[in-house]
Design brief:
The chain is an alpha+beta fold and about 700 residues long. The protein is built from 12 helices and 38 strands. An 8-stranded parallel beta barrel has the order 5-6-7-8-9-10-11-12, surrounded by 4 helices. The protein binds 2-acetamido-2-deoxy-beta-D-glucopyranose (5 copies).
């Protein structure tokens, strides 16, 4: 947004501040004006990259951060994951992958800055948007509005994190690397759902955050009404085109989520965003005075365990400049690295020079920064996506590729073209190191299907799924005994569920399965069955694939079975929805910690088969074997392409949910390779445990190493 006042402030700023490149270990006072952040008196144009600490391992952090630094990144941006850190009210966990302080210190050690997005609601395709599930049970709570219980816990956790950072001296104001903190997250998307409390909540959140006195600025993304002094920032694919700008002339123009790709759900294909397209929008944002650009994600990583939110696959933003395993993805990584270097070589005119905009044609412009003392840089933009444009700028002709920006050093020499990646493409190669096809290396055990008489918890209705599981497991059994009073011809079980997966068993045999998707929330199925004389046992396994991460009123979302009916001769004859149901939370294998190295051999009442007895294509089956660690440091993946749906553990650590049977429109699984971080492995003897829900062939599982080849 332009205003005379902005120009004036900006001009004064020029005399007061110096310029600095990115990356400086010990930061100092962080302020800002309409042009940029100012750190220790130095004006900054910063490239930032999102890397989420729990989506990789502490062993991977140093190399991920080093690669980001080598790629021209100045700031590492991360969310803080509330539900990891506070699994029970007042009980905190900062160990292993949750070691936020260690992660930030590693960033500091490598001389980069940190943008800490506390949220504590974060969305992020993370289970429940980062909110702890126990919040659901707080009486009277309504999330993310002017609600006292929510504000209490939000303030409590935010304070905990800020105090932790302060006690470790991690804010720039203390000489640490954190230059920015974020409160809330994309609240603008849901604010309309709270006509009563929304605006008051935004004001409260800003005031609460600012009151914590971090000594560094706070930001709110996608929040046009962010109260002063909190800076509103843009998230999106094309902020150079879509962002209406900061809500005050004294705030810099910042882009906190530049989607380097997009997330992927089960049943979805990967979203490929080209290096050239990203470079165009980054250059345009800088040309339009942007001074902070973050790549979401720079490294996506892995949703280990059950940390992904509803229907999201386990790999996260594999298409980012650093792929899921931390390998450099070319040309994306290299092209953006060259863009960063080009822009940094023109930092002085960019940050200190006068800004002018010239028209060069109907769809062509020049954004020029400079003056007699600072030099000159120009961004020549061709917005015509179909055709090359030849433009004349300062008496020289330039050929601009379709939809491209050329950056001119000294306003003369082309040093970068967004549409021309000079870096060769590389390809990722997976090399199989071990087939797990020897039956004698596996043992098997199948879960018993619980019947009504096996359950101790009962109710005269279909209970809500999460209310019973508290999200300690994906699984909830609904069981009922049924004694047909009169013959039922062509019996069909009609089931409706709000999520996400249903497996129907009648008299111990699986008769049908169904599932929803990110777009189809209600699962409806009609399962033909056979009934026997006397008592029939109907057991329905309801499975969740992560809690949702977005939208208003998350505390009120309901899941699990809503309706169960018996249809005889095409007519609804029995409605069990209000009958007496028996419940079992979770699987027996989960209860006994079957995937754990210390008790895998003693998992009573389950009993492993003798080695070599592999029951294939069986639902609800656990498989176990040991394997040696392949030499070297190449990333490792497990190919579970012959399985259906389930979860895998290595030495007791879950490498995530798999769902190979959920095919994309093109008929492929969304993901069949699952990352086993080297940090999960022992020097020798690793325990692999697989839980298969539907039926699969473990003899087709294999272990591969991953590397990149230059073409
Ligand atoms: C958070 O709440 C707990 C009580 O649940 C209290 O003991 C603790 O002091 C609070 N912490 C902060 C930082 O407010
Ligand atoms: C960039 O900043 C200059 C100086 O404040 C201003 O004149 C110009 O309009 C701004 N351009 C954009 C696109 O915001
Ligand atoms: C969940 O359980 C609570 C407490 O038992 C109850 O008040 C609430 O209605 C239940 N929610 C649903 C959706 O069944
Ligand atoms: C159903 O379960 C009951 C109790 O375990 C058992 O006695 C009965 O045989 C089962 N019915 C069938 C058809 O398997
Ligand atoms: C509108 C939209 O899709 N926003 C997404 C932006 O990216 C963050 C992080 O991936 C997501 O949480 C949002 O859903």
């Amino acid at each position: 947004m332009e205003s005379g006042r902005a120009g004036l402030l900006w001009a004064i700023g020029v005399f007061l501040v110096l310029i600095g490149g990115g990356g400086a270990a010990a930061a100092g006072r962080v302020t800002y004006d309409g042009r940029s952040l100012i750190i220790d008196g130095q004006r900054k144009l910063l490239f930032s990259g999102s890397i989420h600490y729990p989506r990789s391992t502490p062993q991977m952090w140093p190399s991920l951060i080093a690669k980001a630094k080598a790629g021209g990144i100045d700031v590492i941006q991360t969310y803080v994951f509330w539900n990891l850190h506070e699994p029970k009210p007042g009980q905190y966990d900062f160990r292993g992958r949750n070691d936020l302080v260690k992660f930030i210190k590693q960033v500091q050690y490598q001389g980069l800055y940190v943008c800490l997005r506390i949220g504590p609601f974060i969305e992020a395709e993370w289970n429940y948007g980062g909110l702890p599930v126990w919040l659901r049970d707080v009486p009277g709570i309504v999330y993310r509005t002017d609600n006292e219980p929510f504000k209490f816990y939000m303030r409590n956790f935010t304070t905990k994190i800020v105090n932790l950072m302060k006690s470790e001296g991690l804010y720039a104001s203390q000489g640490g690397p954190i230059i920015l903190s974020q409160i809330e997250n994309e609240y603008g998307n849901v604010e309309g759902a709270f006509p009563q409390g929304g605006a008051a909540y935004v004001r409260w959140a800003a005031k609460m955050a600012v009151g914590l006195q971090t000594g560094v600025p706070w930001i709110m993304c996608k929040q046009p009404d962010a109260p002063d002094p909190v800076i509103n920032t843009c998230n999106g694919m094309r902020c150079g085109e879509t962002f209406s700008g900061p809500n005050s002339p004294d705030k810099p123009k910042m882009w906190t989520e530049n989607w380097s790709s997009f997330f992927q759900v089960f049943g979805g294909e990967p979203y490929i965003r080209s290096a050239e397209d990203i470079a165009f929008h980054v250059a345009l944002f800088v040309a339009k005075n942007g001074s902070y650009i973050n790549y979401y994600m720079y490294h996506g990583g892995t949703n280990f365990g059950r940390s992904a939110s509803s229907y999201f696959i386990t790999g996260y933003y594999d298409q980012a400049p650093l792929d899921e395993y931390g390998l450099v993805r070319q040309p994306k990584y290299g092209h953006l690295k060259e863009l960063h270097a080009a822009i940094k070589s023109c930092m002085k005119p960019l940050l200190m020079g006068k800004h002018t905009l010239l028209s060069l044609g109907p769809l062509q412009q020049a954004y020029v920064f400079g003056d007699a003392t600072s030099g000159c840089v120009a961004f020549l933009v061709n917005n015509n996506a179909a055709n090359v444009a030849t433009v004349t700028f300062r008496n020289k002709a330039y050929r601009l590729r379709p939809k491209s920006i050329a950056i001119l050093q000294n306003c003369r020499t082309v040093i970068f073209e967004t549409a021309k990646a000079n870096v060769p493409k590389n390809t990722r190669v997976t090399t199989m190191v071990k087939r797990f096809d020897a039956a004698e290396t596996w043992t098997t055990v199948t879960e018993t299907v619980p019947g009504f008489s096996d359950t101790s918890f009962r109710a005269n209705s279909l209970l809500e799924h999460t209310n019973l599981t508290k999200d300690t497991t994906d699984y909830l059994w609904y069981t009922i005994g049924f004694n047909p009073k009169s013959p039922c011809v062509k019996p069909v079980l009609h089931i409706e569920s709000l999520g996400h997966v249903v497996h129907a068993f009648v008299n111990n045999a699986r008769k049908g399965s169904g599932h929803g998707s990110r777009d189809i929330k209600v699962v409806k199925m009609d399962v033909p069955i056979q009934l026997t004389r006397g008592q029939n046992n109907i057991s329905i396994l309801s499975a969740m694939v992560g809690l949702p991460d977005s939208g208003a009123f998350l505390e009120k979302r309901t899941f699990g079975l809503r309706k169960v009916q018996m249809i005889c001769s095409g007519v609804i004859k029995y409605d069990f929805s209000g009958s007496k149901w028996g419940y079992q939370v979770g699987l027996v294998g989960e209860k006994v910690g079957i995937y754990d190295r210390t008790n895998v051999m003693n998992v009573k009442p389950l009993k492993w088969s003798p080695k070599g007895v592999v029951l294939k294509n069986r639902p609800l089956t656990w498989y176990q074997r040991w394997f040696e660690t392949p030499k070297g440091d190449d990333p490792l993946v497990l190919n579970v392409g012959t399985m259906g749906k389930g979860e895998v553990w290595v030495n007791g650590q879950s490498i995530g949910r798999y769902w190979v049977s959920f095919l994309t429109r093109a008929g492929r699984p969304s993901q069949s390779m699952y990352h086993i971080p080297r940090g999960f492995l022992k020097d020798s003897g690793n325990l692999l445990v697989v839980f298969e829900e539907e039926g699969g062939d473990p003899l087709g599982i294999s272990l591969s190493r991953v590397s990149v080849n230059w073409s």
